[in-house]
Each structure stands twice: as C-alpha cells, then as structure tokens.
Design a protein that fits this description.
Blueprint lengths: L2 H14 L6 H9 L9 H19 L1 H14 L9 H22 L1 H5 L5 H28 L10 H12 L8 H11 L4 H29 L8 H26 L5 H19 L9
C-alpha cells in the first residue's frame, strides 16, 4: 500500500469513525478500489483508529480528566462512587467488558470470516434500519417524556450500551451506530447518546490498537501499509476526526439521524449489487 493510499484511508477513517455509518466497513470496501486493490486489514484499521480516539481524548479532555480523577479518588471510599464522574468511570469500565470478552473469544473470525463483504452489506442495511426505527421512537417519546441525560445512567443501561458497542466487532455495524441506537431506544437524547458513545469507545479502541501494535511489532508483515504509512494515516485520522466530532455533535442536537439511515441502506445495497455483478469479491484476494 502506497503513502497516498494510506493517507486516503486515514481521511476516510477520520470522516466515518464518529458517524453511525461504520468506519471499518468503509475501509474494507474502499480498499478494494485502491490501485493496490487490497483489504487494509484489521491491524491497520485498529491502529489508525487510535488517531481518531486521540481526537476524542483531546475534545473531551476536561470530562475525561474529571472522570479519571473522581474514579481514582473513589478508591479511597472503598471503590464506591463519590460523585457522577466517578460513577461514569465505573460505567465505562463495565460497558467495555462485553467488547473485550467477545473480541478475545472471536478474534480469528473478526479478522477473517466476518470481513466478508456480503456480511458488511447486510449489516449496513440492517443496522441502518434499526437506527432509523430508534430515531423515530426517540422523536415520538420526546413528545411525551423528557429525554434522559447521562446523569441518570445506571448499571443496566451501561451494560446495554456495552453490548451494543460489542456488535461493532462486525464490519458494517458501526460502533457509534450501535451505541447510539441503543441509547435512543433507552430514552436518551440524541446528543447524550452520541457523547456517551464517544466516551465508551476509548478503552476498547485504545486497547485494540495497542494489541495490534504489539502483534505488528512481533510480525512486521502484519501491516500491509508499513509503519510509516500507517503513522501518517493515523495523523490524518486524528485531525479530520477532531473536526468531525465538533460538527457531528452540533448536527445531532438539531437534526435527526435520517440522512445516515438513507446513506447506510444505499451503501449496503450498492455493495451487494457490486458483489452480485462480480465487481467486488466477498473476501480479500
């Protein structure tokens, strides 16, 4: 993979990571149309996602610092939350357990069988429709009841958020799409669901990226793009991702998720049509 191809994929990662349209699906699909015509691979994807999560860390630095500080101080109280920030820290840990456990148990399938583009197309459509239904439900619920804020989140909701995030191990589901859909169905506002989605993703993404970094250090051929190109792609993902966070939070506080639903369904149908026509192959060559 050339530098320009890696930079392009870094741009795609930054543009799609925080939108409910699946960054991993876009990297998997668009990789087939690059001059090298290759799947960038799970290792490349996980490592450049560190760039976008660093953007989350910078954007939410005050919230993250408050959570870490309060969670650390809570240990002086026997591990009991002393305030909302400490409680949020525990809930993020609890919510991260499902994706860690399932990611470990199904690692081989995630890196091979689940990268089938037929699966990607189907999940783009299926979970796009789920997001649309959740958004409609949230709109109707808001007319009757006040949307829940993150201050009211409990253990049950934290676990459900975590299970929804774990679905993103399948390319095409979308980490933000899964957690936002769950949040809307549980009665949270669009903005609250999006903000918690960003915070919840950090441990899982940093963990997966670190794991792939260690594996790549032991097996240099695991990175098709090479170290220099992967680093450059991660930097691009960071810069673009930071700008997308700002824009996305403003958009969801005012508008619905319908445009993302239409886009997901159209993309999924397009992928399946290209597979049926023989333009795309289900698995990387």
């Amino acid at each position: 993979m050339s530098l320009w191809e890696a930079l392009f994929l870094g741009l795609v990662q930054g543009l799609t990571e925080f939108l409910p349209i699946s960054s991993s699906a876009h990297l998997r699909i668009l990789g087939e149309f690059l001059p090298s015509a290759e799947d960038p691979g799970a290792a490349f994807t996980a490592i450049i996602q560190i760039g976008t999560e660093l953007a989350v860390l910078v954007y939410f630095r005050r919230e993250v610092w408050a959570i870490i500080r309060s969670w650390t101080l809570s240990w002086k109280q026997g591990g009991r939350p002393i305030d909302q920030d400490a409680r949020m820290g525990w809930l993020i840990i609890i919510g991260s357990v499902p994706i860690v456990v399932l990611g470990f148990l199904f690692q081989d399938s995630i890196e091979t069988n689940l990268r089938n583009l037929y699966i990607t197309g189907a999940t783009l459509i299926g979970f796009g429709l789920a997001l649309g239904l959740a958004d409609i439900y949230a709109g109707k619920r808001a007319a009757r009841l006040e949307a829940k804020s993150l201050h009211g989140i409990g253990v049950r909701d934290g676990v459900l958020y975590g299970l929804a995030q774990a679905l993103a191990l399948i390319p095409g589901v979308s980490r933000s799409g899964g957690t936002i859909t769950a949040g809307l169905l549980m009665g949270y506002s669009r903005e609250a669901a999006a903000r918690y989605s960003f915070l919840l993703a950090m441990p899982a993404v940093f963990g997966a990226g670190a794991l792939e970094l260690v594996k790549a250090l032991g097996e240099p051929t695991a990175l098709a793009a090479g170290w220099g190109n992967t680093l450059a792609a991660g930097i691009v993902a960071f810069v673009v991702g930071y700008m997308v966070i700002i824009a996305f939070l403003k958009i969801v506080s005012t508008y619905s998720y319908k445009p993302f639903v239409y886009y997901r369904v159209a993309l999924g149908l397009g992928v399946i049509a290209l597979l049926a026509a023989g333009v795309l192959k289900p698995y990387p060559s």
